Amino acid sequence: MKSFVRRFPFFLVLTILVHGCSSTIAMYDQYAYSQVTSLKVDALELMEKADQDYEANRREIGAVDVMLQKAMEYERHRPKNEIVNAMWAKLYDPGSNLYGGFMERWKQKGKLEGSFIENQKKIIGLSFDQIAELQSKLNRRK
To answer: Residue 77 to residues 2, 11, 72, 102: CA-CA distances in angstroms?
Structure first.
């Protein structure tokens, strides 16, 4: 966990900001929370297949990609949601060491090694968890 925090301080800073800015962040949204938890499962399941040829999995890769883009688009249109949007953007960025970067690496290399896949699944799973935890802590309507 310590190496995760060192490698991805961006998520830590955003989480800390939430606690200080609770009146300026979006309201809790059950749909958004459900989306992130569901997408985590789909993304990690897809990553399991990265030891296979990328092209052979193109259809499933595309399907998960579309679901991620839909979730990000939904989040983008929620008011006061800049922190969550920044977290999604980092997760999806092909230049990052998170989901987007993993998928880009798989595409470039064709196949990935099992130990690399397992390590990345842990890191990326934690990133999805941080988004979900933030979603669950957003202001709740009273």
So the answer is: 33, 21, 9, 27
